[in-house]
Amino acid sequence: MRATASILHLDLDAFFAAVEQRDKPSLRGKPVIVGGTGGRGVVSTASYEARKFGVGSAMSGREARARCPHAAFLSGRFHAYRETSKLVMQALRDLSPLVEPLSLDEAFVDLAAAGLDDLDVATVTEVGTELRRRVHEVTGGLTATVGIASSKFLAKVASELDKPDGMTVVPPGSELELLRPMDVKVIPGVGPATRERLRRAGIHTIAELELVSEDELVSLLGQAQGHGLWRLARAQDSRPVVAEREAKSISVEGTYDADLNDRKLMAGLLTRQAKEVGTRMRKNGFSGRTVSIKVRLHDFTTLSRSSTLSSPTDDGTTIARIARALLGDLDTTGGVRLLGVGVSGLADWVQEDLFGDAPDEEEVEVTLPEPPRRSWPPGADVVHDEMGPGWVWGSGSGVVTVRFETAETPPGPVRSFRMDDPALHRWEPPPEE
Questions:
Q1: What tens digit of pLDDT does each residue of 354-365 get?
Q2: What does each C-alpha distance from 409 to 74, 143, 377, 394 come to in angstroms?
Q3: How many Cβ atoms are within 10 Å of 280's Cβ, its own excluded?
Q4: What is the pLDDT of residues 278-331, one digit of tens each?
Q5: At residue 433, does pLDDT exceed 80?
Q6: What pLDDT, on a 0 to 100 scale, did the predictor assign at position 367?
Q7: Strand residue runs (E) in 227-322
Q8: Are strands 336-347 and 414-418 parallel, antiparallel or unpaired?
């Protein structure tokens, strides 16, 4: 923990949904839910208008529709989210060279590296206010909530206190006063299972957690988590803001034009990706211990699984075998739009005989299904030869309905077309360099 409030945490408010509302004027001020479009879908982000009805992230699409049936359910547009995130991260780097992105919509910033005249509370408060104004400007109207404190832990906690579009600065010396009344769930790593174990021990608030000895917490929660919670309950967090990291993983992934349903095809694709990962690792002199897969379902839900070996490997056959086993634990009903394999826990050595002489596997033939001629997910960008740009309002029974508007126009007209209308086209961003 620092002597100054010099670590800033920025969190974009309801990011995916806010981008959709920005780009779709007719949805501004209305409930918007990104994800959860399929029967087995899961909500990725809900706008604040939808949250008033009890809709939240990770809720099933079915429950979200029951709570807020009049919301706009959209499939999501990663290209728009990535481009907006780049603008925000650049604004943060313009402030300080030490920026640590956590995801597309949040990051830590080290204000001690920002070249400020001082780090008094008044100064960092002014900086936070200006940063929020700048984010609003570069993103075309999105809002962010900021927390500023003496540690990463406190800055992240502070950024949750005045949502949306707010800011909380924690003056040095007041950290414990802020934390003590809070529920233990605000501490990173305290999920439902840990919270339940603490509840059974009579621990509900950080003030109650602070009274428990370190040995008692280790006995209750184990070595790593027990020591960590004991320190955080006392606001002890000295983690630095890390702008650049060495490569922590090597991965390969692919997004597919048509949803995949054939498990043998998925296994073949993972095998091919795993062998490419192995080739890259050997080329760069790396090996790794943890094999992970990433699976994005048809409804925008992203799943991941991993397995850690006792020693590192760079063998594509071994990586593929583990990746296929991990896939077997996942429910891919409804189709898969993205598959990926990665290896982390990188090292610069390999224990050659760890797996013995594994037999070579036959090359799996991979033939992707033909993409559908037209795909019209809700919210997707389209262009009509005469009407211009718009987005998919909905589709079914051979008809697609489009709202013609952009971020720069007023709410536009709604028109319906045959799904195979040659004048209507899906708009896709140009491939990244």
A1: 444 444 555 556
A2: 20, 20, 22, 20
A3: 16
A4: 998 888 888 888 999 999 887 667 888 999 887 888 899 999 999 999 998 888
A5: no
A6: 64
A7: 249-260, 287-297, 302-313
A8: unpaired
Query: What whole-number distance in Å separates Cα of residue 417 and Cα of residue 423?
Result: 9
C-beta of residue 96 within 8 angstroms of C-beta of residue 130: no
Question: Looking at residues 27-54, what average pLDDT do you find?
Answer: 88
Q: Average per-residue pLDDT in the chain? A: 88
Residue 116 φ then ψ, to 5°: -75, 155
The residues that are catalytic are 106
Contact at 8 Å (CB) between 8 and 108? yes
Name 149's bridge partners.
7
Sheet bearing 43-46, strands edge to edge: 43-46, 32-35, 72-74
Q: Are 288 and 250 in contact (CB under 8 A)?
A: yes
Tokens of 200: 């059974």
Whether residue 11 is annotated as binding a ligand: the answer is yes
Mean per-residue pLDDT for 236-257?
A: 81
- What pLDDT score does 352 carry? 46
Task: Give Cβ neighbours of residue 157 (< 8 Å, ≥ 6 apart).
Answer: 147, 149, 178, 179, 182, 186
The number of angstroms, rounded, from the C-alpha of 231 to the middle of its chain's C-alpha atoms is: 27
Q: Is 165 annotated in some ligand binding site?
A: no
The secondary element (H helix, E strand) that includes residue 417 is strand 414-418
pLDDT of residue 193: 85
Q: What percent of the chain has pLDDT over 70?
A: 90
Q: Which two tokens stand for residue 418?
A: 């045959």
Report how far apart the first and last C-alpha atoms of the chain are (Å, whole number).
41
Report the candidate in 131, 164, 128 with the shortest Cα–Cα distance to residue 149: 128
Q: In this structure, are strands 144-149 and 167-169 parallel, antiparallel, or unpaired?
A: parallel
Q: What is this structure's pTM?
A: 0.76
